[in-house]
Amino acid sequence: MRTPHTPDEESLVKASYWMARLWADEPSAQEHKACKAWRNADPANEYAWQFLMNAQARFGEVPQNTTAIITRSRQISRRSLLSLAGMATGGLFFAGGYQLNSQENPLFTGLPNTSRLTTEKGERKQIVFSDGSQINLNTATDISMPNTHRLLLNYGEFLLNSHSPIPYQIETPAGHITLYAGQLNVRHTDNNTSLSLYEGKPVHLIGHNMDNTVTLEPGNHIDFDSSHTENLQPTDTNTISWVIGKLVVQDMPLPKLINELSRYRKGVLRISPDLSHLTVSGVFTLKNTDTILKQLQASLPINVTKFTNYWVNVTPA
């Protein structure tokens, strides 16, 4: 139950969102202005903001359910704040479907002039097709395009936002997907394809060894390989925070987080199985995975040992 001195949950979540936006990276003047406008719009907003400011300044007094992880190293600035109350609550970044344009996103590249779309490790791209559809490519992705509405995902991940009257036919090593219109995230790793349909019309999918087509309704996520589907659940909008260069996690096992980070850096990144009991909630900036590892080491009982730029071990402290 909320105490009389604790802000209401909605204001606290929004305050944590603004703090993460302003502290997790270099904020723009527009972001500062928008945050100030939000704080001035309602006394409850300002109270929640001041509550979290005080909590950050007095880490030892923060209620357990208010801050999941906060840096305690003097070598790391307040922009290294990893998590504030409810930051990973769904819908903050992408409510109603997140769309980017060339003014918002320096990764914008315009119309493709090749039948192959690729990114290296740590690289992201956004491309606008001739029908106005937008595709964002995450790190280490390889897509072939035999024609304008057919995508062959060899490996990696992309977010496709389509309003085209012509369906997109998507192939992965696991099977076939038909997107009629909407916002769909597709990821293929380790013989498994993951789909998250955030909005639009239902998607049809079928594995290469399946007999029947499966329908995925908007607002749902599903995993499948060539033979079967699994893990049908509501979509988690935090999983596409990579589109804006962030990794947003809530109660994620540390080994899983380290595995995610390994997708964005070259070389070997290993973690001891003795750390499988640790979980992490936080907002991380993907442009520098070394900084993320330093933040984790400052906040958790772990050692990060860097043998070379291409070999890093994470072990118990």
Task: Outline the fold blueprint.
Blueprint: H1 9-23, H2 29-41, H3 43-57, E1 116-119, E2 125-128, E3 134-137, E4 141-147, E5 150-162, E6 168-171, E7 175-179, E8 182-189, E9 192-200, E10 203-207, E11 214-216, E12 220-224, E13 229-234, E14 246-253, H4 254-262, E15 268-271, E16 279-285, H5 289-299, E17 302-308, E18 311-316
Parallel strand pairs: 5-6, 15-18
Antiparallel strand pairs: 1-4, 2-3, 3-5, 4-5, 5-8, 6-7, 7-10, 8-9, 9-12, 10-11, 12-13, 14-16, 17-18
Helix pairs in contact: 1-2, 1-3, 2-3
Which blocks of ≥5 consecutive residues have pLDDT under 50? 57-111
Q: Mind summarizing the main beta sheet?
A: 13 strands, mixed
Q: Number of DSSP strands? A: 18
User: What gap, in angstroms, lies between the N and C termini?
Assistant: 36 Å
What's the pLDDT, averaged over the residues?
78
GO molecular function, one term: sigma factor antagonist activity
InterPro entries: FecR (IPR006860), FecR_N (IPR032623), Ferrdict_sens_TM (IPR012373)
Organism: Marinomonas rhizomae
Keywords: Membrane, Transmembrane, Transmembrane helix
